[in-house]
Specification:
Protein name: Vacuolar protein sorting-associated protein 51 homolog
Subcellular location: Golgi apparatus, trans-Golgi network
Largest sheet: 2 strands, antiparallel
CATH class of the domain at 350-531: Mainly Alpha
Shape: elongated
Distance between the termini: 119 Å
Structural class: mainly alpha
Keywords: Golgi apparatus, Lipid transport, Protein transport, Transport
Family: Belongs to the VPS51 family.
Oligomer: single chain
Strand content: under 5%
CATH topology of the domain at 350-531: Tetracycline Repressor, domain 2
Subunit structure: Component of the Golgi-associated retrograde protein (GARP) complex.
Number of helices: 22
Strand order of the largest sheet: 1-2
Length: 738
């Protein structure tokens, strides 16, 4: 702070006035503030004292050492002063002797300079006289670079003394020797098998020997192209090496030679200006070099791409990417070295192509794994000992199939994530093709495989397919599990791993579409299961009706065995279905109590539009009444139409009810095609009542079952020659005993 700005009230200022500060404090502050200020001042004072003591203690040794040093310096300076005085005396003596020597040698100095110049000239002349022999010796030793250097050095001397006859002969001999050397170098330059290093060295020597620049430039690219082609052919035979060794060989051999040729050609023909060549020579040379570079890089990268395609699905992906990363770094370095050149092709396209091919390979593996899993499920179902055991094992089969598919897909997505590692020198997502490739992992691999699952599973539900019923049930439940959670888990995983914003994309498939397809497939498979089981029940009932002589029946004494078999089969079916679609406390899955409308009597319910239930007691009608069709027509008039082959829901009651409807409808149609005697009608009455006594346990609403049984008995009455029904009590006794 400057003096003009110093305040008398600032304790840190040099112009601080304690009296004025105290007066101002007493005037402006309260007693409490004054006491606080006093405490603060006391505290600051104590702190300053403590800091000063610490500073003194810490620097005490330094102060002592500095004092000793100063005292010692005083003593040393006295000795040094005497030494300096002695040195000055000796230097004066040396100066005197030097002046004396200079005066003595002054006369011979010019003579020594003349002798030195003559000696240098004699050495040059000696060099020229021995040059032809020396050039021959260097050429025999194949030390062409030194021979050319000596010859070019001698040209300066020849230019100065070449008119002398003695030197003219030496120059002619040297020119003849170098002409032979030039021819030898030209032959070596054109010889196959030259490395890029030797081509460069020979080319530089020929340029120094005034070879025509344009011819040499063209010849250099031609010879280098032959050598690089030999390296490509050699690399094609390295099939036994892994990808990393293969790429290392290409980098150390092909790319290093190519880089050396390009840089040497650039330095020799593009970077230098030649007076004897046309003005556009450098531009044309750069264009030819660019074409040469891209042609050879394209050949090499095509070879690498073929090797990558052959290794996909068989080799280690990480090793392959490490090799491609190393190649990508080398090509990036070549781009930096090759100034003014444009390398059109790069390794990112190969990497993106490898990602596409690996996606296709993984997609095929997923499909094969899915097919194997389905085969294992079918084998497990075929080897099951009983329906009950099958019912208990279906949940395990579904769980194994679901988990196997989901975990396999997760593993594939994790494997493909290696392409996006941050430590690679390439970033495929930065390229437009790479971004499409990443989206292709989601669409072609994941979404495509989920749709493949839906399509294959749906194929098992075709009428032409001979699939076991329980397989349809397993596949339907698996599709339902995928729809409920599997699809969401997998799509969320791929979006998270690959940072895909599918919600805001108009081109990507939304999760709801796949869920809808899975649910539709699950419905189709469940409907196929119901149709197949219904067909099995129908087959038993149809044969039981068609193979019996209903006109010559005996008086019924028991329920037919086929009805018991039907009830048992429905019980087994419900046990299996209940293990998947209902978790009740009843292990059998059966209802244990009937509804208030159920009855064990020999009458059956009819549905009307105005009443939920209408009961008819066939035993109350007289034969004349039964022979009339009015009753049946009235029933059909007021009854609702029953859809047999409707789509079922994902509940046990809906599934079993669908099977029962198909079976009873088949039985009804078979009855309508037969003619019955009195006892045949009574047998149908007993069978229908037995079904009524047992089927209510399998459904949630037995009114539909009662309606179909009413239709069944009504049709039997219409087709009966003597329509006399059995007494209800007798029917009850037979059914309970049966």
């Amino acid at each position: 702070m400057s003096e003009s700005n110093a305040s008398p009230f600032d304790m840190d200022s040099s112009s601080f006035d304690a009296e004025k500060y105290l007066e101002r404090l007493l005037k402006d502050c309260s007693l409490r503030q004054i006491m606080d200020t006093e405490a603060a001042v006391v505290k600051d004072t104590q702190t300053l004292h403590s800091d000063m003591q610490t500073l003194v203690y810490e620097n005490y040794n330094k102060f002592i050492s500095a004092t000793d040093t100063i005292r010692k310096m005083k003593d040393d300076f006295k000795q040094m002063e005497s030494d300096v005085n002695l040195l000055m005396t000796k230097m004066q003596s040396i100066t005197t002797f030097s002046e004396q020597i200079t005066g003595t040698l002054q006369g011979t100095r010019s003579q020594l300079c003349r002798l030195s110049e003559k000696h240098s000239l004699l050495k040059r002349l000696q060099f020229l006289s021995t040059l032809p022999g020396k050039l021959k010796g260097l050429i025999e030793e194949q030390n062409y670079a030194q021979a050319v250097q000596d010859y070019l050095h001698a040209q300066k001397v020849f230019a100065q003394y070449g008119r002398q006859p003695s030197f003219d002969g030496i120059q002619k001999d040297c020119d003849a020797i170098m002409a032979d050397l030039k021819e030898t170098l030209r032959q070596d330059f054109q010889r196959a098998g030259n490395t890029a290093q030797s081509l460069t060295e020979i080319g530089e020597l020929l340029l120094q020997l005034d070879e025509k620049t344009s011819d040499l430039a063209s010849e250099m690219l031609t010879c280098a192209g032959k050598r690089l082609h030999e390296l490509i052919v050699m690399l094609q035979d390295q099939t036994e090496r892994d990808m990393l060794e293969f790429v290392d060989m290409g980098i150390d051999g092909f790319l290093n030679d190519l880089a050396l040729v390009v840089t040497s050609y650039f330095d020799m023909f593009v970077a230098k200006h030649y007076e004897q060549e046309r003005d556009d020579f450098q531009e044309n040379s750069l264009l030819e070099l660019n074409i040469f570079l891209n042609q050879n890089i394209d050949k090499y990268l095509t070879l690498v791409q073929d090797r990558v395609e052959s290794d996909i699905g068989y080799g280690d992906t990480q090793v392959m990417l490490r090799a491609l990363d190393r190649l990508h770094r080398r090509l990036q370095a070549m781009r930096n070295i090759c100034r003014g050149l444009e390398v059109q092709r790069n390794t990112v396209d190969i990497i993106i192509g490898a990602a596409h091919q690996l996606c296709d390979a993984h997609a095929k593996n997923l499909k094969d794994h899915f097919a194997d899993s389905l085969s294992a499920v079918r084998l497990s179902l075929v080897s099951a000992k009983s329906d009950a055991a099958t019912g208990l094992n279906l949940s395990d089969l579904i769980s194994n199939l679901y988990v196997a598919m989901v975990e396999k897909i997760k593993g594939v997505l994790q494997d493909l994530l290696i392409f996006l590692r941050t430590d690679w020198s390439f970033n495929i997502k930065a390229e437009h093709k790479g971004a499409l490739c990443v989206e292709g992992i989601r669409e072609n691999l994941l979404i495509g495989f989920l749709r493949h699952i839906s399509k294959v599973m749906c194929g098992f539900g075709d009428a032409s397919s001979s699939s076991p019923p329980n397989l349809l049930l397993v596949l339907s439940k698996t599709c339902l599990e995928l729809e409920l959670q599997g699809v969401h888990i997998l799509i969320a995983l791929v979006d998270d791993l690959y940072e895909i914003d599918s919600e805001n994309s108009a081109t990507l498939t939304h999760e709801t579409e796949i869920c809808a397809e899975m649910r539709e497939t699950a419905h189709a498979l469940l409907d196929a299961y119901v149709r197949l089981q219904g067909a099995n029940i129908s087959q038993m009932l149809r044969k039981s009706v068609e193979t019996r002589d209903w006109l010559n029946c005996l008086e019924p004494r028991s329920v037919r065995a086929v009805m018991k078999r039907v009830v048992e089969e429905l019980g087994s079916i419900e046990t299996v279905v209940a293990s998947l679609y209902e978790g009740t406390g009843n292990p059998t899955g059966f209802r244990t109590t009937a509804s208030s409308d159920s009855s064990r009597k020999t009458y059956f319910s009819n549905f009307t539009a105005s009443k939920p239930q209408y009961r008819s007691n066939w035993s109350n009608y007289t034969p004349s009444q039964l022979e009339s069709s009015y009753v049946s027509n009235i029933h059909r008039l007021f009854s609702e139409r029953v859809d047999i082959f409707t789509s079922v829901e994902f509940t046990k009651a809906s599934i079993v009810m669908g099977i029962i409807k198909i079976g009873l409808k088949t039985l009804l149609e078979c009855v309508r095609l037969r003619t019955f005697s009195k006892y045949g009608l009574q047998q149908i009455q007993v069978d229908a009542h037995y079904l009524q006594m047992n089927l209510w346990r399998f459904v949630s609403d037995e009114n539909l079952v009662n309606f179909l049984l009413d239709e069944l008995l009504g049709s039997a009455v219409q087709r009966c020659l003597e329509s006399v029904l059995m007494e209800p009590n007798a029917v009850e006794i037979i059914c309970e005993r049966g």
